[in-house]
Amino acid sequence: MISIPVAVNAEPLWNGRGRIVVSCDGNEHDWDDWAATSMNFAVLASQRLQDKLPLYIYSDHIWGSNQERSNVKGMCAYNHMRESAINGAANFGFNNTRLVCAVDNPEVAYNALRDEINKSSLENPLFIIAAGPMQVVGEGINRASREKRRFVTIISHSKWNNIHSDNPQKNFSWDNHSGWTFDEMVDAFSSSKGGKCKFVKIPDQNYNLQCDRKEFDWLRLSAARSCSYYKHGSWDWLYIRLESCAVKNGTYFDVSDTGMIVFLLTGDDRATPDVIRRLMEMPLYAK
After folding, report:
1. What domain of life does the UniProt record list for this protein's source (predicted)?
2. Whole-structure pTM value
């Protein structure tokens, strides 16, 4: 079996049944996760899915932190991810979500994901958003019951994430490691012998979601920011987190990994800031 290609605006994988787990990095190399993790909580909250996210694994570049970005606006990469994860959960109501910092103790992350996989069934499937190097996701699956893997779907979009475990940055002498890659997971776990995990690879979300910051002006202007459903100040905090890792001299925001959340919920594999806006404004019109 190979990974499943998906058409634009396909039927959404999410139908309200099951659970969602996210595993992302942000503590080394990539810093867009500082923004995307914050936005992930916001988008999931907009659909009232707080109780469907039992586990959020962050800083899953388990081989170290802070070499590339030891100080950005007064914080290292590790602390930027901690801010996005802990306060993202708090600002958007994820009081029952377990937050695991993988780089602190990879074994805890592996086993936390294993345990969620082992809870899975036809009535309670698991969707894993793979938003960092694949080592944590791969090892979590590897430790899980083979019989439970058939109820698990893994979603990825980034070639860099898919291969980084076995493809460290050669221009950095400190970046020397190996681990699970996306293709290795497909080979090991998608067959009948491997448990029939489902793997979905969508287009790179950077094309639409790394974009001019003006496309996110709605975060400061939308009436939904004052909706009673959202915690006061949560949208301001979210905008600041997007600013924390702005690229191109601060003119572009990047929430590309959030495209996988949008895809899971809507079937749209070409998410744009306007699609995210419409999702986040839904509580304004809810009865």
Report:
1. Bacteria
2. 0.94
